[in-house]
Amino acid sequence: MLRDTGTLELAVEMRAAMLKQFGRAPHLVVCQLARVKLDCNREVREAAQGNSKGQVAWEEYHASCVTLSRP
Q1: Which of 28, 33, 45, 46 could staple 38 via S-S, CB 3.0–4.6 A?
Q2: How far apart are CA 61 and CA 51, in angstroms?
Q3: Any residues with CB less than 8 A from the CB of 22 and at least 6 apart, and which?
Q4: What pLDDT, on a 0 to 100 scale, did the predictor assign at position 68?
């Protein structure tokens, strides 16, 4: 697992560009835990590596994504 250097800044800039161009922008959900602790882009077993706190964080992250996507 490698560090996601610059991805937050890139996501913020992309969101700002969409807001400027379209007048609307997608929600931005950010996990600020290091990928060695939790990789939210994986299934929970692999993402949390058996860590109960990591599993809770994964569930909360994905719950916020679902909540934001509802109309």
Answers
A1: 33
A2: 15
A3: none
A4: 61
Distance of CA 17 to the CA centre of its chain: 19
Task: Round to whole Å and give the CA distance between 16 and 51.
Answer: 35
Distance CA 26, CA 50 (A): 32
44: burial class by Cβ within 10 Å (0-12, 13-18, 19+)?
A: middle
Q: What share of the chain is helix, strand, coil (3-state, %, to 5)?
A: 55, 0, 45
The span from the CA of 28 to the CA of 25, in Å, is 9
- Over the chain, what is the mean pLDDT? 86
The first and second tokens of residue 23, run together, are 């007048």
**The whole model's pTM is what?**
0.65
Distances (CA, A) of 52 to 6, 15, 39: 28, 32, 14
